[in-house]
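FIELD: query
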Amino acid sequence: MKLVRDMERLSDRETVLPWLYRVAMNHCLNLRRNSTRRGEDTAKTELEIPDGPARESYPDRHLVQQVLGKFDETTQTVAVGVLVDGLEHEEVAEMLGVSRRTVARKLDRFLENARKMIIRSET
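FIELD: result
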């Protein structure tokens, strides 16, 4: 409904994609947060990886889930947006409604702490 109500935003080609990402992400995060509050969270915690010859090249899914799970939703969104989806800091900042500097700080803290967690898990 948000997309229909704010259709005039779809006319600006430069801002439409970040806006669509932000609306979709916020909607999904709100659904997940609300279902968790009601005790209805049925989201799969296991990531599905298709069978194939490159399966061995994937990182340890369990470790990745553990590391991401140690961070708040905003930091998780920053990490996935930048490191997985390849978005620019400015795009993630606009989606989350925070400054580019906040995105950079959250990403730096995530990387620093994730490295420490991974090193600890290897010892």
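FIELD: remark
The chain has a mean pLDDT of 77.
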